[in-house]
Amino acid sequence: QVRLVESGGDSEQVGGNLTLSCAxxxxxxxxxxxxxxxxxxxxxxxxxxxMGLYGKKTYADFLMGRSTIFQMSRKNTMYLQMKNLxxxxxxxxxxxxxxxxxCFRSGPLISSTYNSWGxxxxxxxxx
Length: 127
Known about the structure:
The chain is mainly beta and 127 residues long. It has one helix spanning 102-105, and strands at 3-7, 11-13, 18-25, 32-39, 46-51, 57-59, 67-72, 77-82, 91-99, 116-117, 121-126. The chain starts with a strand and ends with a strand.
């Protein structure tokens, strides 16, 4: 069973940067599709970024150019770097996983694509 643990959430000022981590156990990143999602106050959970098989990356339009998803295989950890933070980036950020093929069969930024979820990490952007 895949287990995911997020960390790195913090309170950051507008324009600042944060890098979130998702430590994965139970399988290796090269066999998985990993997605980052966020849930902001009063809003539904939305996909932020994902990495599928062969390193294929997908980003939500609202974070295009301000985020980078990358992995460190030796740590079996996926990261989400966010730059130039805005107040609307505030929310709980989750990472999620499924087998690598899942992202080909379904959208990588759709929550139903994934069957394993972390507990989330809080990001707060203040002005």
